[in-house]
Specification:
Helix 2 crosses helix 3 (about 55-65) and helix 5 crosses helix 6. The longest helix has 18 residues, at about 110-130. The chain has helices at about 15, 30-45, 55-65, 95-100, 110-130, 140-150, 155, and strands at about 1-10, 50-55, 75, 135-140, 165-175, 175-185. The protein has 7 helices and 6 strands.
Length: about 190
């Protein structure tokens, strides 16, 4: 069985302000670095075979902090890069809701394009790391798409608000991907 644990990157100033990041390259803030350190402490108890991150600064820094306890080679894989939101990137939540109430922005990546990109990344992981335990530092829209595509009760869940630093477990069993748990945040202190 291949087990992937998706880690949502730590907080950025744009997360804090409610700005839509997409593929805009925003670094972690101090809280985000603390969240990454809490992830490191939670994840070091297990044996991991690989650590994958996207090329965006917030994911790379989260992966580097986690890797302080794991000492793995970090693999960059942009299949799990945040969704491109086109002209919505950089907009505050209230402005987006006024101008684009359906959350569809000019020039944005379609949901179908995002899902195809994620599927290609999952195929790559199966080829490169069969029957291994893999950590992937990724982004909110990517992890939400994984939950929507592979959770058996996805239609009942509705929209899931993912916390920065949360963990989502995806297993490849008997020829299919299954979300075993999502948005796990018990390792995060409420003081950050």
């Amino acid at each position: 069985m291949t087990h992937i644990c998706f880690v949502r990157h730590g907080q950025t100033d744009w997360n804090l302000k409610g700005k839509l990041q997409g593929q805009t390259d925003i670094p972690l803030n101090e809280t985000g670095e603390q969240q990454a350190a809490m992830c490191r402490e939670a994840l070091k108890a297990d044996q991991w075979d690989a650590l994958i991150t996207t090329s965006l600064l917030r994911a790379k820094k989260t992966a580097e902090i986690i890797n302080g306890a794991l000492d793995l080679d970090i693999v960059e894989m942009d299949h799990f890069k945040e969704r491109f939101f086109g002209e919505g990137e950089g907009m505050l939540r209230e402005d987006r809701e006024k101008q684009f109430p359906d959350f569809t922005f000019p020039n944005m990546e379609s949901y179908e394009e995002l899902v195809e990109r994620v599927h290609n990344g999952l195929r790559n992981i199966l080829q490169q790391f069969p029957d291994k335990k893999v950590l992937v530092v990724a982004h909110g829209a990517v992890i939400s798409a994984i939950i929507r595509e592979f959770h058996k009760d996805a239609t009942d869940l509705g929209h899931v608000k993912l916390m920065n630093g949360c963990l989502t477990d995806l297993h490849f069993e008997k020829g299919e991907w299954i979300v075993r748990s999502f948005n796990r945040a018990g390792h995060l202190s409420e003081h950050v």
